[in-house]
Amino acid sequence: MTTRRPSSFEQLDRRMRVYETAHDHCVLPGVHIVARIDGRSFSQLTRGTLGLREPYDARMRAAMEATLTHLMVRCGFSTLYGYTQSDELSVLLRRDEAAFGRKERKIVSVLAGEASACFSLAMGVHGAFDARVCQLPRDEDVVDYFRWRQEDAHRNALNGHCYWLLRGQGMTDDEATRRLSGASISQRNELLFQHGVNFNDLPAWQRRGVGARWEHRETRGVDPRSGAPVIGSHRELILDASLPMRDEYDAMVATLVRAQ
Ligand SMILES: Nc1nc2c(ncn2[C@@H]2O[C@H](COP(=O)(O)OP(=O)(O)OP(=O)(O)O)[C@@H](O)[C@H]2O)c(=O)[nH]1
Ligand SMILES: [Mg+2]
After folding, report:
1. Among 49, 42, 33, which Cα is nearest to 116's?
2. Which of 41, 46, 152, 159 gets mutated to test ligand 1 (max ligand atoms within 8 A of its CB)?
3. Total domains present in the chain
4. Among candidate residues 195, 23, 45, the one with its CA nearest the CA of residue 104
5. Is residue 56, in this structure, part of any structural domain at all?
6. What domain range is 93 assigned to?
7. CA-CA distance, 242 to 209, in Å (whole number)?
8. What is the dihedral of CA 67, 69, 73, 74, to 10 degrees?
9. Would you state the pLDDT for residue 232?
10. Mean pLDDT over residues 164-181, rounded?
11. pLDDT at position 16 over 90
12. Which ligand is nearest to the CA of 115?
């Protein structure tokens, strides 16, 4: 079979571009976009490469917060709210976000690439992230999304503290995993309690995750020409390590979503 050869670069470009873009999906206008960016094989990274022997590492926390800040502030997106727990980050974009024509693959590849670069530089190890986009039609879906991730943080914290407690007692990875599989939430709480740990007394950021939202701050300056006092305002990204829970958290997210 003979293939017709394109005769110029322009022809070749036009022909090949179709293969590259034919399946480009754009998120519909008005649909909320939340991207979740998750560490690749971070069980191996944390236990193997980093050799961590505790569930919540201060350097990991700092690197994840630096990465969340980077995604929200310096990656070309109009962001509304961010959230991190364990090895994942979620970023809610403004509903009217138009960056990259709302192309899903551009959003996920930019965020995964930026997160991987930022985290690796912050931790000094090779850390890679994947990303996906959730397309949420209603405000309530955004509220439920963040409630879902926060409840996952709660389960991860309980599981992580139990797992490392058992490992600290000399169990292997397999033994600790087997011992915990099928254990109810109250049995896990009881296990910690028997060893002097009250789960509810653990730091809030471990049980609830860390949020990032924009706040307006008043600035006071002086007009250089007239010397008159000038009051202005600027936006500042605030990291919140003491997030509210349940209904209060729902209300906080709902307020952010509706205020845009
Ligand atoms: N020791 C320790 N582990 C952490 C910390 N933060 C995250 N992790 C671990 O990171 C892992 C995240 O879980 P997953 O995302 O489900 O698993 P994964 O190995 O990253 O696998 P994929 O996401 O499917 O690539 C868990 O094993 C956590 O225990 C930390 O501060 N300390
Ligand atoms: Mg992961």
Report:
1. 42
2. 46
3. 1
4. 23
5. yes
6. 32-208
7. 8
8. -20
9. 87
10. 96
11. yes
12. 2
Q: 254 CB contacts (<8 Å, ≥6 apart)?
A: 139, 140, 143
Percent of the chain predicted with pLDDT > 70:
98
Q: Which residues surround ligand 2, an ion (CB under 5 A)?
A: 38-39, 42, 87
Note the pLDDT of residue 1: 60
Q: Taking phi first (over 0 means left), then psi (-120 to 50 degrees means alpha), and beta for anything else, what does residue 227 get?
A: left
Instruction: Answer whether residue 55 is part of any domain.
Output: yes
Instruction: Write the CATH number for 110.
Output: 3.30.70.3000
Write down the pLDDT at residue 113: 98
Quick check: is 131 in a domain?
yes
91 with 135: CB under 8 angstroms? Answer: no
Q: Which atom of ligand 1 is nearest to the CA of 39?
A: 20
Residue in this structure with the two tokens 């709902």, named with its chain if needed: 254
252: in domain = no
Q: Is the pLDDT of residue 6 over 70?
A: no
DSSP tag of 196 = T
What is the distance in A from the centroid of ligand 2 to the CA of 39?
4
Percentage of the chain lying above the pLDDT 90 cut: 93
* From 49-58, 84-93, 114-123, 227-236, the region with the lowest mean pLDDT: 227-236
**Ligand 1 binding pocket, CB closer than 6 Å:** 38-43, 46, 52, 54-57, 60, 86-87, 160
